[in-house]
Request: fold
Amino acid sequence: MTEVRFEGVEFEYDAGRPVVREFDVVVPGGSVVALVGRSGAGKTTVTDLVARFHDPTRGRILVNGTDVRDFRLRTYRELLALVQQDTFLFDGSVRDNIAYGRHDATDAEVEDAARRANAHEFIAKLSDGYGTVVGERGVRLSGGQQQRLAIARAILARPQILILDEATSSLDTESEQLIQASMATLLAGRTTFVIAHRLSTVKRADLILLLEDGRIVERGNHDELMAARGAYYTMVLRQMASHDQGGDGFDALRSEDRS
Ligand SMILES: Nc1ncnc2c1ncn2[C@@H]1O[C@H](COP(=O)(O)OP(=O)(O)O)[C@@H](O)[C@H]1O
Ligand SMILES: [Mg+2]
Reply:
């Protein structure tokens, strides 16, 4: 399994204004790290560094002991899968969209991934099944269906490192449950970074990093951080209060609210 280690990582888009700083973390292979913190705290930038969309301005990121810059970019990217809020579906068949990044996959492998992602059932009901064209000029899929295709794609890609940007848009309860179930399949055995918007996801993480202004201000699992009664604890209580009033998800962690 794949360990990811940040050593003194710093990153700035504009010289002199670091948005990730003093980042020292060891993520054991196969574990799930939840990045939480308000909008602008640096969550996306941290995952972009892992995906090598940027390289650190200072320090380094090691994957199983090797500086990520020492991998060929293409080799490195093959170790990785991203499941994002806005799933990238191109104009093409469902099959091709799932097999994106794994063009050698057989139809049986594609279908197996779709089943694990709880997507097979809706795909089978489309006019042309796996041959149905989706995307801008194809059949319009619901948000939940698009996410399940993205999960199927990631399952098929068998990444060692997975980056999830959990959707904030609310889905119907059935999609939500199907997605949670297929996520569990996807995460098994992989080192996962999740930008988490839901308390249920955060609670299950092995390690929670609470970011503020690019720094890790609290780290631990849910029980540890609750016991510490710090900023995380406050956020969870606030989220639960907003949930009682019909609030949705762990969004207190995202919004630009007081604290
Ligand atoms: N492309 C960019 N150029 C300059 N600044 C950026 C860019 N992307 C993000 N930032 C800044 O970096 C900081 C961290 O942003 P981001 O990583 O997106 O935070 P989060 O994902 O937690 O909302 C913010 O201050 C944001 O304005
Ligand atoms: Mg972000």
